[in-house]
Design brief:
Chain lengths: ~270, ~260
Amino acid sequence: MSDVEETEIARQVAFRGGGFAPKPYRWIGLAVFVMLISLAELGTQNGFISPLTLPKPSDVFLKFRELYETGLLRKHLEPSLTRLAVGGALGATIGIAVGVLIGLFSYIRAGLVPLVAAIFPIPKIALLPLFVIWFGIDEASKYALIAFGTFTPTVVATYGAVDNVDRNLIRMAQSFGLSWKSIVRKIILPGAMPGILSGLRISLAIAIILLVAAEMLGAEYGIGAYILEAGSLYDLDRLFAGVVMLSLLGVLLSAVIGGIERYVLRWRT
Amino acid sequence: MDIRLSGISHSYDGFEVLRDITLDIPSGKIVCIVGPTGCGKSTLLRLIGGLERPAKGSVLQLGLPAEDCLNPLTYVFQDFALLPWRSVAGNISLVLEDHGMKKSAITEIVNNVLARTKLTEFARALPKQLSGGMKQRVAIARALAVKPAVMLMDEPLSALDSQTRELLMSDLVKLWTQQPFTAVYVTHNLDEAVRMGHSIVVLSRCPGKIREIIHLEKPLAERSYGDGELQFRQKYLWNLMRDEALAADAELVNV
Ligand SMILES: Nc1ncnc2c1ncn2[C@@H]1O[C@H](COP(=O)(O)OP(=O)(O)O)[C@@H](O)[C@H]1O
Ligand SMILES: [Mg+2]
């Protein structure tokens, strides 16, 4: 045996597996933020970055505190959050309902899928004047715009999710004589839930974009109005304070959906 | 309740899958159906259970199922077909919830079948936590819960490794010995067929026709792994099927 070992070359088999399996490294995301912000701070402090290019992060933070202390933050956030909640909830609910109907009934599918395809690519913000005429200049037109914008992606995601429910499970349910209602409630809806929730992620991001757009076009208070005002004065500190609010809102909503997913989809492998 | 298949033929878009199947399934017996892949075994089972309509011929139920039977024709699927979002107990209660029973009655049945399939301690587990053999035991428990008149089993053990299959086979035999049930047991595994079947129906290659029906008198409980007489029968079955299998293997798959 030892003769063989001496004469033959022994080599470790090279490892070439691994990868392609996302792991949760939360702190890296945070570290990227911290690094970018401290770079910006350093650069603006020593004049490497001119104050006209980028505001000092510490100034933005101060502006934020000022906003909070004067109560202006609340004044802007409250209407924005209400609009987002009402419009988003409306659009998502109707979207899920219509999506499920499309998934279940061939006639509804035949009638509505082309329609949804036709309205999906319209930039909804272009329709704001129309909504103002229909629903008035007040809150209702903003609700309608956000709802409409969330509606289309939710519909598409929902009927796709319903289509993807394992047909074998439905056959099984039929073979045990389950009623149509039970099949929809106990098999199709839970089976479509993963797809619906991931669609909701996209829909809500779109809702935030539309919220800002709607507020820019006509609102006294709201994050969008605040950003517009700051922008027209080239007040970069305030502009960035507004942008940070939006980012935080996005992160928050994404975290909420992530939480819902972890709870509702804990059966998933 | 017996099942009678008379003159069943079936085709998909002009492609003939089954031809003139006439067969009686007597109550209290296990009828095994063997045949090469693609000969229409699953199709036949779907026809028997009413998930599809035969193009020709008819499936008859002779006599009435027992009073307490909730779902006379009940499937056990090869891929288990468990809802991943329901626990073991939840998967079983699923098929009882539509019958207007009281919660307590449902729980009682669930506990009973869990005990019979030795799953009691896994009642709250989710399917993703179970091995393949356990999942199929859950599916069998679910089938037992509706007190079927006939169990329609489509390769119930084919997704399992051979040791697990051996264990589950003896579990099934025990269940049958305690309380004989009627079953149509589809498999492509001849060993399973000679262990589980009171009679074995050999189907030919596509279109599936009945080539031969053999009867085994030896009681199920006395059949065991590596039994000489069974191996002799299995050899006979294998000779019947070998040429078909060779030909089927060399064919282009029509899908
Ligand atoms: N729903 C279907 N539509 C069209 N062809 C089918 C369908 N189901 C089965 N087949 C065809 O019928 C033949 C028999 O299939 P199947 O009953 O699944 O065979 P087995 O279970 O014996 O392997 C196969 O050739 C298959 O391609
Ligand atoms: Mg099959």
